[in-house]
Amino acid sequence: MAEAKELERIAMLYIDALLTADDSKVPLAPDMKRAHLMVLPGAPYVWQMTEGADTVRADIRREKLTARKDLRVTVDPERSTVVVLWESGMEFDDARAITIMDRFVIRDGLIAELEIISIPQGQPFERVPYAGWPGG
Description:
The protein has helices at 4-20, 53-62, and strands at residues 28-38, 46-51, 69-76, 81-89, 97-107, 110-120. The model has no long low-confidence stretch (mean pLDDT 85). It contains two helices and six strands.
């Protein structure tokens, strides 16, 4: 069983890669699976299913994000899972904020499964209000 800090470190390598569009440090299992649910306001939701490290690496290079804000990380070492809830922005003109939830399954130091829910907020990143967690 991997320690919580190591699991978190591995998950953060993926998130860091999204901010730099550099997948070179992300430890992906060759046969990894990624499911991405995009919830688009005023439109039907969209599932994107991806298999294989090479495909995911290409997506990381193409899907650059601009910021990491209000990061919340929950680690379950017994299940080798990490859940990260955070805010970011898409990189293009008139980029919109995105709320993202990533659930990683990490086996033998490699990301084996990744489930993502992303919700564009319909306004620029810097305008998304965030009051913080109650009591925190």
